[in-house]
């Protein structure tokens, strides 16, 4: 009975924002346990390998279609910021199940290093890469960007032409430190492209409570804050595409999956109390975003100073 009680309460961060020393363990709690991996593959991946927010091209799009549209937009931004070629070396930071890593390798034939904290997600990444025929292009590295980052023995220094990340920086203990570490990893002229869920500029942290209650965070970033932090880390050509209008649709799509596929999730091992807490949180999230637009999301791009070609 005690084990079941523990399972049903993991990933519940109600009323909490974590200190820098705590957040990595809480990220593992949020994503790595089996029921959490199952939940996110339903609710953000739509059965696929992507667990990030989406871009809606038509009213009938759901979490799967919109997430794939984000992948396409992120890859196009990467290619526009610095051309992607078979000679490119990409770091997918916080790669999750590896969905974007797989698409990069398949689309451009480039080498991809998937850096991620969860051993189980990493196993899934490697297995799927082999199935897709890109296993020889993808190297999966288990690591924690909140501790001694970057790990030079695993990743080297100045070796990557591109660094990409989707909805991961929100879990960073120190975003300025993370951005400086990324700069160290990039070759001169290298590109950084990332998406993140943020509070809108001017939003009260209390208004973001339904997000922080379900996610391992220190404090949510703001678009203007990231822009300045990128410049402070000596990045140039800093740009932000604001896709925040997609969030209301995505929150509604997540809630729809919970409501229409909840029984299937429970059969697959998602505890009913865990699911119900998400339904409650998403219901609140849809309401506050539709009424007050307190969240922000979009695609950042920047370059490390150096040659364009």
Describe the structure.
This protein is α/β, with parallel strands linked by helices and 309 residues long. The chain has twelve helices and seven strands. A seven-stranded mixed beta sheet has the order 3-2-1-4-5-7-6, sandwiched between helices. The model is unreliable at 1-19 (pLDDT under 50).
The outline comes out as globular
Q: Please give the radius of gyration in angstroms.
A: 18 Å
What's the helix count?
Answer: 12
How would a crystallographer describe the biggest sheet?
7 strands, mixed
Q: Give the ordered list of helices and strands.
A: HHHHEHEHEHEHEHHEHHE
User: Quick check: average pLDDT?
Assistant: 88
Number of strands: 7
- Neighbour order of strands in the largest sheet: 3-2-1-4-5-7-6
Assess the beta-strand content as a share of residues: 15-25%
Going by helix content, strand content and strand pairing, the class is: alpha/beta
Low-confidence stretches: 1-19
| Distance from first to last alpha carbon | 60 Å
Percent of residues in helices: 40-55%
List keywords for this structure.
309 residues, 17% strand, 12 helices, alpha/beta, globular, disordered N terminus
């Amino acid at each position: 009975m005690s084990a079941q009680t523990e399972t049903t309460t993991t990933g519940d961060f109600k009323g909490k924002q974590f200190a820098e020393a705590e957040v990595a363990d809480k990220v593992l709690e949020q994503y790595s346990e089996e029921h959490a991996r199952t939940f996110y593959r339903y609710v953000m991946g739509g059965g696929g390998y992507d667990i990030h927010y989406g871009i809606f091209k038509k009213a009938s799009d759901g979490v799967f279609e919109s997430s794939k549209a984000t992948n396409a937009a992120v890859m196009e931004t990467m290619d526009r910021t610095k051309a992607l070629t078979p000679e490119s070396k990409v770091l997918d930071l916080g790669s999750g199940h590896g969905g974007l890593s797989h698409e990069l390798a398949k689309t451009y034939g480039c080498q991809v290093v998937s850096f991620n904290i969860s051993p189980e997600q990493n196993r899934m990444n490697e297995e799927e890469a082999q199935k897709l025929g890109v296993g020889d292009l993808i190297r999966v590295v288990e690591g924690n960007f909140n501790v001694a980052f970057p790990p030079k023995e695993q990743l080297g220094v100045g070796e990557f032409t591109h660094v990409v990340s989707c909805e991961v920086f929100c879990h960073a203990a120190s975003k300025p430190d993370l951005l400086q570490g990324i700069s160290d990893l990039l070759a001169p002229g290298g590109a950084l492209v990332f998406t993140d869920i943020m509070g809108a500029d001017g939003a009260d942290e209390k208004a973001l409570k339904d997000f922080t209650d379900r996610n391992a965070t220190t404090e949510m970033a703001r678009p203007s804050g990231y822009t300045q932090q990128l410049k402070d880390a000596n990045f140039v050509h800093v740009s932000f595409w604001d896709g925040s209008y997609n969030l209301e649709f995505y929150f509604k799509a997540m809630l729809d999956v919970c409501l229409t596929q909840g029984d299937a999730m429970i059969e697959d091992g998602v505890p009913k109390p865990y699911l119900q807490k998400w339904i409650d949180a998403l219901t609140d999230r849809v309401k506050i975003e539709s009424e007050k637009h307190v969240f922000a999301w979009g695609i950042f791009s920047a370059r490390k100073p150096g040659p364009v070609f």
